[in-house]
Write a structure and sequence with these properties.
- The chain is an alpha+beta fold.
- It is built from 35 helices and 20 strands.
């Protein structure tokens, strides 16, 4: 009998039989209680999805393990766990064979030479006789109707059905299940071929035989007596111990020479390792899944260390997708070998010595060992609470790789220092590389696999010498930064506390290249590729670095919940704009920066990301503002910068855009998603991210705010009304009305000019005469185009011109926004 992945069809042929033994209970999936109905519904839905005729590429549905005992003399499999699933599969095959007119093919392998069923129950004669009769009779599914009990009615009304069979609970359960199958699969023609496919069956399970891993059926008898099957971990543990016995034979265990590897592993699973995981079970009392999750995580470590680059992407993908693999999974994946056992035992033995949560580093500033370990045990998705992220996988690998090399010396101060240096560098690399999908995780793990050979006493020297460039897998800019920091720490131990203080800032998180640039360290070190300056110069450079950090953390405080700090009236952004153009591109837009958007974040500006045009010039705007910051009075410093006005040329990408944003903070506040767009010789403030949402022309909105502030001077016009827009081709407008029947002034921006249009209720030569330079369009319409900076004065000219006593005007009304 073949073990491993199998389908129901593969259990039969060559006279093979499946006989449910006496120790098994009746067919419970066909019971009528509420719980059984729900189990039945969910199970059939899962089977139905896998047989969906419209999704022929559907992934095979794995029904997990089926355990049994093979009786070679009788060519019979006795299922000891999985009887319920096998019975449902038998009934489903009978039904679909009838539905798809494949009953002769079904009968060719499900029927014994004597005519009986190859799938049967030994529990009662009635159940055996019922199955024997069923395999002889296809159901006339086209004629029995859609009534909920139509199929069971046809069965029980047939001449071959013996009434006394209904007293058997297994037969009753089968009749109930047949009705449920008919209700779910009556429209599923074509499912038979996927069901019995030898190459890619729609439904499979993993068959394990007792004799293959030396388990006695007494255990199964006891478990069935209490209604419980072996858990997947219990099966994995049994198979694991069997594999250890085969791989190491009678070889004495290195961890306890008086015992064989198999005996040692078996004992530790039951005692020490279980005791350790019990301490870290959280609120659950079921630690079996925790064991399986940890073994899965250590399998990833082993896959990286095998240095099989061609197989690693597939191995990582499948292991990440399978939280609780069984041993056949590890075998098929190619990561099960002696070295995996040795690594797993070393890590588990190291962990088992911890009385509390793992804390080998002695600090949490670079890695929360307890947190990462907890997430590995929970194995939740990254988008769930306390979920396991791809960066967690990087840190877990780095952590384990060091434990594997130095597990015996973790308590010594030198080894702890080496460990902290290793974790510090890896954490900085991982946090500042875009590890956002599996292929990037694989690249990072490959790099660490090579780099881990250097962790130890000479690690910082190796990093300073370019080891990161050789291993790769991470952001190159961060690799260069780590190289310089390693040189500085090796140059003088006084650098370590300064660097670590900046690195552990909750926002910077290891990315402090901007501080190294601003303080002059990068340029100074680049002169000789060494930090071989004098002690006096070193002291001055340390002081410069510390001062720049103090300025930076004044704007990005350690205790803030979001960064930068929330300054009144957008002072930080306006100070930057007064100094230069710091905006970053975001698609067709330009962003005022928002850390909710990775591609247009403050982090990206500070690191002068290589994808940013003029990146050094834009980051230098930050340097110039920070240089004027007094850490003891940040707000006052920023106000001074803003008050000094816009520095340099303010003509691109459109004239005066920086000046207007600096002078009027409400222009920035309009941009809810912090986006602007430069189009049509203008700048548009976006409430969202596109112009099909609310947006307004920068020049129009700025003019509106100026006019609104002077609304008392606009009589006989009422206060200005702003019409912002949705849609690319609509113009933002300011509208001023004297009354419902009085003059109306409209302001729009056309190209580089502001266009003012005045509509008079009737011809008024006095108004026309007062508005010199205006174009007359008929007797009642006038217009003028002029630069944006002249628009406010032109509006006041119109106000003065229409105050002639020949026109009746109401009192001024308050302004409003329309849209």
């Amino acid at each position: 009998m073949k073990t491993g992945s199998s389908s129901f069809r593969e259990l039969f042929g060559d006279g093979y039989r499946v006989e449910v033994p006496v120790i098994q209970r009746d067919y419970a999936q066909g019971r009528e209680d509420e719980h059984s109905r729900e189990v039945r519904r969910r199970f059939l839905d899962a089977l139905g999805e896998s047989l969906n005729a419209e999704a022929m590429e559907t992934v095979t549905l794995d029904l997990d393990f089926v355990y049994g005992r093979w009786k070679d003399a009788d060519r019979t499999l006795e299922p000891l766990d999985g009887q319920q699933r096998l019975t449902t599969l038998f009934l489903l095959h009978w039904y679909l064979a009838s539905l798809d007119n494949e009953f002769d093919e079904f009968r060719s392998w499900i029927t014994l030479p004597s005519g009986g069923s190859c799938f049967t129950y030994r529990t009662r004669p009635a159940a055996r006789e019922f199955f024997d009769a069923l395999v002889r009779q296809p159901a006339p599914l086209g004629t029995i109707g859609a009534k909920s009990t139509a199929l069971s009615d046809w069965v029980t009304d047939s001449v071959w059905f013996v009434r006394s069979w209904r007293r058997d609970p297994t037969v009753r359960g089968c009749l109930t299940m047949l009705d449920a199958i008919h209700g779910r699969f009556a429209a599923c023609k074509g499912g038979w071929l996927r069901l019995v496919s030898k190459e890619s069956p729609a439904i499979s399970f993993r068959l394990l035989l007792l004799e293959n891993f030396n388990l006695s059926d007494d255990l199964y008898v006891k478990m069935n007596a209490r209604g419980r099957a072996l858990t997947p971990f219990e099966v994995l543990k049994a198979e694991f111990e069997r594999f250890v016995g085969e791989a190491f034979a009678g070889e004495p265990c290195l961890h306890e020479p008086g015992m064989t590897w198999r005996d040692f592993v078996s004992r530790q699973f039951d005692i020490e390792w279980t005791d350790f995981l019990w301490k870290h079970r959280g609120t659950t009392t079921d630690i079996d899944p925790r064991f399986m999750h940890l073994i899965r995580a250590l399998a990833i470590v082993r896959c990286v260390n095998r240095k099989d680059d061609a197989s690693l992407p597939t191995q990582v993908d499948q292991l990440l997708a399978t939280a609780e693999p069984g041993l056949p999974f590890y075998e098929e994946l190619g990561c099960l070998d002696r070295a995996f056992i040795e690594h797993l035992v070393t890590i588990l033995e190291t962990l088992a010595k911890c009385k509390e949560a793992p804390n080998f580093l002695g600090r949490t500033s670079y890695m929360d060992e307890e947190g990462v370990f907890r997430r590995v045990l929970l194995a939740r998705g990254a988008n769930q609470e306390d979920g396991l992220t791809l960066i967690d996988w990087v840190m877990f690998y780095a952590w384990c790789s060091f434990l594997l090399r130095f597990s015996k010396d973790l308590g010594s101060d030198p080894v702890r220092t080496w460990f902290n240096d290793w974790i510090r560098v890896v954490r900085n690399l991982a946090n500042n590389s875009d590890i956002d999908r599996n292929e990037r995780l694989v690249a990072a793990l490959r790099g660490l696999g090579q780099l881990s050979q250097s962790c130890g006493p000479d690690f910082l020297s190796r990093v300073a010498g370019g080891a990161l460039d050789e291993s790769g897998g991470f952001n190159q800019q961060q690799q260069r930064e780590e190289r310089l920091k390693a040189r500085l720490i090796l140059r003088s131990s006084d650098w370590r506390p300064l660097i670590e203080k900046a690195e552990t800032h909750p926002y910077f998180r290891g990315d402090i290249e901007f501080l190294l640039r601003f303080s002059g360290l990068f340029d100074r070190a680049a002169q000789t590729e060494r930090c071989d300056w004098s002690d006096d110069e070193d002291s001055k450079l340390r002081q410069s670095f510390a001062e720049w950090y103090d300025r930076a953390r004044a704007v990005f405080p350690e205790g803030a919940k979001a960064w930068p700090a929330s300054f009144p009236n957008s002072l930080w952004e306006r100070a930057l704009l007064a100094t230069g153009d710091y905006l970053l591109p975001r698609g067709r837009n330009w962003s005022l920066l928002d850390d909710k958007d990775r591609d247009a974040s403050w982090k990206r500006l500070l690191r002068a990301d290589t994808r940013v045009p003029d990146r050094e010039a834009r980051r230098d705007v930050v340097r110039r503002v920070l240089a004027r910051i007094d850490p003891k009075d940040v707000v006052g410093s920023l106000r001074t910068v803003v008050a000094a006005g816009v520095q340099g040329v303010d003509t691109t990408p459109v004239p005066g855009f920086r000046s207007r944003l600096v002078a009027e903070p409400r222009l920035i506040e309009y941009c809810e998603r912090r986006m602007l767009r430069f189009e049509e010789d203008s700048a548009f403030l976006l409430a969202q991210t596109q112009r099909n949402g609310h947006h307004v022309d920068l020049y129009v909105y700025d003019l509106y705010l100026q006019l609104y502030a002077r609304r008392a001077e606009l009589a006989p016009f009422g206060g200005p009304a702003l019409v912002d827009q949705t849609g690319t081709y609509l113009k933002s407008q300011i509208v001023l009305r004297a009354s419902a029947s009085g003059p109306t002034l409209t302001v729009e921006k056309h190209g580089t000019a502001m266009r003012l249009s005045l509509q008079l209720p009737k011809a008024d030569p006095a108004v026309t005469a007062n508005l010199t330079g205006w174009t007359t369009e008929g007797e009642t319409s006038l217009s003028r185009s002029l630069p944006p900076d002249s628009a406010a004065a032109a509006v006041l000219d119109v106000v003065a011109a229409v105050r002639a006593p020949s026109i009746e005007h109401p009192d001024a009304n308050s302004g409003e926004t329309q849209g």
